[in-house]
Prior knowledge:
The protein is mostly helical and 100 residues long. It has 4 helices and 2 strands; from the N terminus they run H-E-H-H-H-E. The chain is rod-shaped and about 75 Å long.
Amino acid sequence: MKKLIFILLLSSVFMTTYANNAIAETAKSKMSQKKMTMVNLNTASLEQLVSLPGVGKKKAAAIIEYRKKNGKFKSVDDLVNVKGIGKKMLGKLKGQVKAS
């Protein structure tokens, strides 16, 4: 009986450790994906802009149109001047876009 309890405890420790490692690896992977998907607002294509969360074809086209009419984005905060992008959307995009 003691052996069974010991084996069960040992198994649960192993499973918990394995699960924690898997979660940590997933988090690292997501962070590295975000770093790789940094999009430059001044040079990005429609397809690159659409890859951003919450940006569909219409918003991507509006970003490009704004860029054509007004020149390069001086900062990421200039995105709020684009029709359809407000402060909430800007907050979601800030870590994934740049204006340099």
